Amino acid sequence: MIHTIQRRKNNALPLIFAGAGLILFAIAGIFWAKQSQEVAALSADEDLSVVPVSVEYLVPELVMTDLSGKSVSLADFRGQIVLINNWATWCPPCRAEMPQLEAYYQAHKDQNFTLIGISAGDTQAQVENFVREYALSFPMWIDLESAALSAFRNNSLPSSYVIDKNGTVRLAWSGAISLAMLEEHVTPLLKE
Description:
Layout: H1 2-45, E1 53-58, E2 63-66, E3 71-73, E4 81-87, H2 92-108, E5 113-120, H3 124-134, E6 140-143, H4 147-151, E7 159-163, E8 168-174, H5 179-185, H6 187-190
């Protein structure tokens, strides 16, 4: 009889641990769901884009190929304000910021401004499909070797840089940028 009671206690122990584990799992799920709702509410109410850093250095020499197969260089844009955006098709924040970049480009392309998207590691076909999907009109360069990331010494995606008319990099971002941030920080440079 004592052995039977002891066996029942030993058999119940794993069930108690399993039940406790399920309870802890449920509590963690409730906590995670609440945190996700708070982040979603915050994202809807606030602009969470990254603020640029003021920098001052000469633009790196960079020669690439555009979507038409033509050789292009940053030196070709001397005398303009240029926004370089390093991105990749697989990068969620890159995808999220593309409509913002296109809107800014459309609003300012006639003000001696250009925006150049430099795809890090994507093939030409991948970039062409992406450009069609997002209806992008600004110039896109292919960078299979991620040379632009090396030239700007930043492996983060997305990353963006504003180059002034004299070929000096003036602003740098690591992370997604918004239309509001572009208007606040880039537009004043267009008036210089």
